[in-house]
Write a structure and sequence with these properties.
By secondary structure, this protein is α/β, with parallel strands linked by helices. Helices cover 40% and strands 17% of the residues. The strands form three sheets. A six-stranded parallel beta sheet has the order 1-11-8-7-5-6. Strands 3-2-4 form a three-stranded parallel beta sheet, sandwiched between helices. Strands 9-10 form a two-stranded antiparallel ribbon. Helix 7 (172-181) links the parallel strand 5 (161-165) and strand 6. The relative contact order is 0.18. The structure holds NADPH dihydro-nicotinamide-adenine-dinucleotide phosphate (NDP) and 5,10-Methenyltetrahydrofolate. NADPH dihydro-nicotinamide-adenine-dinucleotide phosphate (NDP) binds at residues 46, 142, 165-168, 170-172, 189-193, 196, 209-212, 230-233, 246, 266-267, 270. It catalyses: (6R)-5,10-methenyltetrahydrofolate + H2O = (6R)-10-formyltetrahydrofolate + H(+); (6R)-5,10-methylene-5,6,7,8-tetrahydrofolate + NADP(+) = (6R)-5,10-methenyltetrahydrofolate + NADPH. Belongs to the tetrahydrofolate dehydrogenase/cyclohydrolase family. Its EC number is 1.5.1.5, 3.5.4.9.
């Protein structure tokens, strides 16, 4: 079998177009412009691609973009003060603090200082709790993007067996919550899982969020399964720097029914969902109707 390649880039362009249309209406009819503030502390190579693409697409969607680039040795007090300012700023509807943060900063403390209503990453404990109990929340962008593509491909996910490889707070756990919310039978695998290959072969939906280049190979995929590759790994290939996922695309795409590529899969959807979340936060802040189909 040769898998259908799920075009995340095209899907994301569609989501962004819907966001942009709604933003244009907000500005015209209500004089309101959604604003997204991004805070970057120091330089992390894995974050660079994200930051580059994010700023441009925020402006393209008609939103205001505020970037705060801070030195790697910024103190916790100073960072908390900046977040306090952004929380109070009525032009800012979404706040994203790029992770990972330098080691001397307590990431939990920083994330939980963000106003939950402006937490467009969905990482604040309030949003995590709301999502876990099936209440209206800000939903983490990467898992939300994955869910949108899965729903578009399958319609209902009810009753499907889903395996999420990875249990991070930013991808694995919220992904599992969303799949459970759509009535999948969910397994979360991680570095201590016994016989990962056998666990993965049980999956109708296999989500890889491991951070290890091409570790999920074709022999770990159930024939016809849908494979979602969250991984973003920079590797040297033929002397050139390249981006590859956590899935070995060459072997997995021979077995899977559908698969997302890297680049051009989950990554663009993450940014599209960040814009969607910023728009949703703005609508909620102003008591205006939310766009439909852009959150769970
Ligand atoms: N496309 C996008 O928009 C985004 C992509 N990413 C990418 O997704 C990947 C995962 O990111 P993130 O969740 O933050 O990563 P983390 O490093 O926080 O988590 C990785 C998870 O994978 C598990 N793991 C590690 N090695 C193995 C193994 N050999 N077998 C099974 N499980 C293993 C770890 O298990 P344990 O808990 O036991 O250590 C951990 O739960 C990265 O490549 C990252 O760059 C991240 C965010 C957004
Ligand atoms: N607070 C926070 N929230 C995050 O969501 C977050 C973060 N910190 N830290 C870093 C990771 C990583 N991440 C990516 C998002 C999009 C692409 C992306 O656009 N990828 C393109 C790259 C295309 C290219 O330029 O080559 C693609 O896969 O096609 C990549 C990586 C979000 N993360």
């Amino acid at each position: 079998m040769t898998a259908v390649v799920i075009d995340g880039k095209a899907f994301a362009a569609g989501v962004r177009a819907r966001v942009a249309a709604h933003v244009a209406r907000l500005r015209e009819e209500h004089g309101v412009q959604p604003g997204l503030a991004v805070v970057l502390v120091g330089q992390d190579p894995a974050s660079e691609v994200y930051v580059r693409n994010k700023g441009v697409q925020t402006l393209e969607a008609g939103m205001a973009s505020y970037e705060h680039k801070l030195a790697a040795d910024t103190s916790e007090v100073d960072l908390l003060a900046l977040i306090g300012q952004l929380n109070a700023d009525r032009a800012v509807h979404g706040i994203l603090v790029q992770l990972p943060l330098p080691g001397h900063l307590n990431a939990d403390l920083i994330i939980n200082s963000i106003d939950p209503a402006k937490d467009v990453d969905g990482f604040h404990i309030s949003n995590v709790g709301l999502l876990g109990t099936g209440q209206k929340a800000m939903v983490p962008c990467t898992p939300l993007g994955c869910l949108m593509m899965l729903r578009a491909h399958h319609g209902s996910l009810a009753g499907m067996s889903a395996v999420v490889v990875g249990r991070s707070n930013i991808v694995g756990k919220p992904m599992a919550q969303l799949l459970l919310g759509d009535s999948c039978t969910v397994t979360i695998a991680h570095s201590r899982t016994r016989d990962l290959a056998a666990v993965c072969r049980g999956a109708d939906i296999l989500v890889a969020a491991v951070g290890r280049a091409e570790m999920i190979t074709g022999d770990m995929v159930k024939p016809g399964a849908t494979v979602i590759d969250v991984g973003i790994n920079r590797v040297a290939r033929d002397g050139k720097a390249r981006l590859v996922g956590d899935v070995d695309f060459a072997s997995a795409s021979k077995v899977a029914g559908a698969i997302t590529p890297v680049p051009g899969g989950v990554g663009p959807m993450t940014i599209a969902c960040l814009l969607a979340n910023t728009l949703t936060a703005c609508c909620r802040a102003h008591g205006l109707p939310e766009p439909e189909g852009l959150t769970v």
